[in-house]
TrEMBL record:
Protein's UniProt name: FAD-dependent oxidoreductase
Boundaries of every Amine oxidase domain copy: 10-406
Listed transmembrane segments: none
Matches recorded under InterPro entries: Amino_oxidase (IPR002937), FAD/NAD-bd_sf (IPR036188)
Length: 413
């Protein structure tokens, strides 16, 4: 069967893998010079720079299906987070995983004792629910859910807002409560981790699982119309089946105007002589006047992120930036206020402005019937925008698209 896949992101690689397993030899058309889509790691000035701060949640069902965690040499974050504010900081931990920190968690300023008991209660409730059950619950905003659950404004502002704003890439916690509960469950049942050699190793691992797939890099697609694929260089390709894994409105005329713009984020990297956190933790900034949402010393998690002995600091900014030219200087001033280290010691390495960091999804789901992947007899769709913004969803959609293609060759859908 002549199957072409538009896009070599996670969805496209998974679709190709599933097609291979059924005896097919798909061809992937990728616009860029690499595989991985939004998952990428650059080597720059002796540092490994992920394009956007990302983590792998090891409890993701699809990640467990397709990835070998030992082969990726995962490095793990400690459960919890560090809350940073000018002149003060404190750590919140998961005492169920580290009982020695129980007293510290009870006494921490993140919220009331009632808030901490509610976190434990919510964790237990979600443990008993399947992922599908979570996504079948009524959807409200995350902020409304937290308030209705009884959490205080203190813990919402000190922890939930900065932590989940960094995940959802929006600052009002307007994301569906379904997604919040799913992510909360994943953190409770597994760990946040990164491959030793950067997040891009996930894409490399998936590519290396392909033995009979041709990947054509630097091959941008201009349009897909039925079984015909037109490349930007004018070449026309005839295909029996096409799986489109990029945003389909970019290449399919009939879908133009039907998708919202993706969420964006600034990811700014600095080097420092050594980490001022000295823990494998994400640090959150709860002061709403700051641009910085979160920061992580990647070298505290994996030493391989630096080959020159310097510490690598990743800073994420989810708020709108009025003047990009002054962004680095403003971040340095904030870093000095948070750490007490003079701003001049933070050496700027690189800034990524990631326009398509996460898709906007109104009706978030965990799964979809493979029939939903079919646009017409020749064209099938995949991508996390069909479910929710996550690696897990990207993998699910790729698998479902491949299943739909295979079934369509046996029986019309």
């Amino acid at each position: 069967m002549n199957v072409f896949i538009v896009g070599a992101g996670v969805s496209g690689l998974i679709a190709a893998f599933e097609l291979e397993r059924s005896g097919n030899t798909p061809i992937i058309l990728e616009a860029s010079d690499r595989v991985g889509g939004r998952i990428a790691t650059d080597l720059h000035e002796g540092f490994l720079l992920d394009r956007g701060f990302q983590v792998l949640l090891t409890a993701y069902p699809e990640a467990r299906r397709y990835l070998d965690y030992d082969a990726l040499k995962l490095k793990y974050f400690s459960p919890g987070a560090k809350i940073l504010n000018p002149g003060s900081s404190y750590t919140i931990s998961d005492p169920m995983r580290n009982p020695s920190r129980l007293i510290g968690m009870i006494l921490s300023k993140v919220g009331s004792l009632s808030d901490k008991l509610k976190i434990r209660k919510l964790n237990l409730e979600l443990t008993k629910m399947s992922v599908d059950e979570i996504f079948d619950t009524p959807s409200t905003t995350t902020l409304s859910f937290l308030r209705n659950y009884g959490f205080s404004d203190k813990i919402i502002n000190n922890f939930f807002k900065p932590f989940f704003s960094g995940i959802f890439l929006e600052n009002e916690l307007s994301t569906s409560s379904r997604m919040f509960k799913f992510v909360f469950k994943m953190f409770g049942e597994g760990h946040a981790a990164i491959p030793e050699g950067g997040m891009g190793e996930i894409a490399n691992y998936l590519r290396n699982k392909l033995n009979h797939t041709e990947i054509r890099l630097n091959t941008p697609v201009a349009s897909v119309e039925g079984p015909k694929i037109t490349l930007q260089n004018g070449e026309v390709i005839d295909a029996e089946k096409v799986i489109v894994t990029c945003r389909p409105d970019l290449v399919i005329d009939q879908l133009k105007g039907q998708f919202s713009s993706n969420r964006s984020v600034y990811n700014v990297y600095f080097s420092l002589e050594k980490s001022f956190l000295i823990q494998p933790l994400i640090a959150l900034v709860s002061d709403g006047k700051f641009l910085i949402n979160n920061l992580v010393f990647m070298t505290d998690i994996s030493k391989s992120y630096s080959t020159n002995g310097k510490a690598l600091l990743s800073v994420s900014v989810t708020k709108p930036v009025a003047n990009e030219d002054s962004l680095v200087d403003l971040i340095k001033i904030e870093l000095e206020a948070l750490s007490g280290i003079n701003a001049e010691f933070f050496k700027h390495i690189k800034t990524y402005k990631i326009e398509d960091a996460l898709p906007e999804v109104d009706d978030m789901k965990a799964n979809l019937p493979f029939t939903n992947s079919k646009l017409n007899d020749h064209v099938f769709l995949a991508g996390d925008y069909m479910l929710n913004g996550s690696i897990n969803a990207a993998m699910t959609s790729g698998r479902k698209a491949a299943e739909a293609v295979l079934l369509s060759t046996q029986n019309p859908l």
